[in-house]
Specification:
Strand order of the largest sheet: 3-2-1-7-8-9
Helix content: 25-40%
Bound molecules: nicotinamide-adenine-dinucleotide, zinc ion
Number of helices: 9
Number of domains: 2
Largest sheet: 6 strands, parallel
CATH architecture of the largest domain: 3-Layer(aba) Sandwich
Order of helices and strands: HEHHHHEHEEEEHEHEEH
CATH superfamily of the largest domain: TPP-binding domain
Length: 248
């Protein structure tokens, strides 16, 4: 791993337009469970059953009870870990420009990144399905499910359910920053959910170096990414940042 960390420091040090693509893995150390893999929500529930827009429309109270309420309790108290902080530090160092995140937890903004593209929307806000009013999730009274707006419409997360479109502006901007970046750091994503998983492909085709940080190989490993640093986001980012700060 030492040689790979050194290689990443070497690749990132001259970069000025780096972009990070992040997934659920980066937030595990902040106490937010991933969907897939060990301890993931999918071990307990069928994603298509719970996180599909049709399920929400059919039975919003059930989806709120199983998915949204637990997530709300977890996300309300979660704080950025050294993985998020390291990516924010890359921006301060003038190396990284943007973060494309599949996460809906708001932790990159909390860590200090200023250009965060929320590919799958956000859980920090709920939206009324009747009048479109937005309300901060932390302000939502979830004592009765589903929670309702002052207009009595049902509140839904301002996030993308399965079966829904990616917000067009997020998709365009992601494609744009991916095609312009010099390095793409792919952190904590299994890279199987499309179209997010095609952003490293765009980066690669545009000439960027693609570096993965993940304890496990992914769909990109050996195909799209130049190399995988096998480890957790917090530990690996700490080592990369120490190295970069040593150079400056
Ligand atoms: P995923 O659950 O499919 O994959 C998680 C990846 O993280 C795996 O490849 C795993 O090996 C890796 N990982 C595990 N521990 C890690 C660590 N300490 N450091 C770095 N990587 C680690 O996640 P995904 O690819 O993001 O796709 C799932 C979808 O679920 C996303 O679209 C996202 O919207 C949603 N989701 C979001 C959150 C969140 O906001 N934090 C949480 C769960 C799911
Ligand atoms: Zn309303």
């Amino acid at each position: 791993m030492d040689a790979l960390i050194a290689r990443a420091i070497n690749d990132l040090s001259p970069a000025r337009q780096a972009v990070a693509l992040t997934g659920a893995g980066i937030s595990i150390d902040s106490g937010i469970p991933p969907f897939r893999g060990k301890g993931g929500l999918w071990e307990r529930f069928d994603p298509m059953e719970i996180a599909h827009i049709d399920s929400f429309l059919r039975n919003p109270a059930m989806v709120w009870r199983i998915l949204v309420k637990d997530l709300k309790d977890i996300i309300d108290t979660a704080r950025p870990n050294d993985g998020h902080k390291g990516i924010a530090r890359l921006e301060q160092l003038g190396i990284l420009k943007s973060v494309i995140t599949q996460n809906i937890d708001g932790l990159h903004q909390m860590a200090g990144n200023t250009d965060v593209i929320e590919f799958h929307g956000t859980f920090a806000w709920q939206r009324c399905m009747t009048c479109d009013r937005r309300i901060e999730t932390s302000q939502v009274d979830a004592s009765e499910l589903p929670p309702r707006c002052v207009c009595s419409g049902i509140l839904r997360p301002d996030a993308v359910f399965f079966g829904e479109m990616i917000p067009p502006a997020a998709l365009w901007r992601s494609q744009e920053v991916a095609s312009r970046c010099d390095v793409m750091l792919v952190v904590g994503t299994s890279a199987v959910v499309q179209p997010a998983a095609s952003m490293p492909v765009i980066a690669k085709q545009s000439g960027a170096i693609v570096i993965e940080i993940n304890p496990e190989p992914t769909a990109l490993t050996g195909m799209i990414s130049d190399y995988l640093i096998p480890g957790g986001a917090a530990e690996v980012m700490n080592r990369i940042i120490s190295g970069l700060e040593g150079i400056r």
